[in-house]
Amino acid sequence: MNQIPMKKFLATVTAAGLLTLGAAGTAFAAENDPGTASSDQPAGQEQNQTQNKGTHRGARREAIKVAAAAAASTIGVEVTELKDAVKGGQTVGALAESEGISADSVVEAVVQALNDRIAQAVTDGKVDEARAAKVKERVPAFAQRFVNTVPRRFQTSG
To answer: What share of the chain is helix, strand, coil (3-state, %, to 5)?
Structure first.
């Protein structure tokens, strides 16, 4: 006899939950719709920010590829040999030193290669001048980390 009121209770709770989720989903979709302008920013700027969020990881990967190519070229090894050394727990700087090249010259080559790539992106209209200037400020620190540290996933414990 208690089953009938319990079924009604569950049906009511389920219906209320679905209505709540539906309303929240509609509100969320309206907030993120690039066609609707908000009071904070113009619609075009919101859409541009949404598009840029996915490109950060791709830009970082591209920077690592450019840095690896520049470092390998400076050291005089293939990129695959450089990758294998890093995966084995060796820094790019240590590999360079073992080949008779100073780590500082590798850092300089990486900085130059990345700055050239950023300048090319500005020329191609992919990045504006202000963003390029911000990124270029971070290049030397990135190059130092790239050459003188081993990524955590390749560090051996012990």
So the answer is: 75, 0, 25
Angle, helices 55-75/103-123, rounded to nearest 10 degrees: 130
C-beta of residue 105 within 8 angstroms of C-beta of residue 74: yes
User: What does the pLDDT read at residue 15?
Assistant: 60
Which residues constitute the domain of residue 76? Answer: 55-151
Which three-class secondary structure state does DSSP give residue 123?
helix
Number of folded domains that form the chain: 1
In-domain check, residue 14: no
Average pLDDT over residues 6-19: 62
84-117 pLDDT, tens digit per residue, is 999 999 999 999 999 999 999 999 999 999 999 9
Q: What Cα–Cα distance (Å) separates residue 51 from each residue in 32, 34, 44, 68?
A: 12, 11, 11, 27
The one-character DSSP state at 34 is T
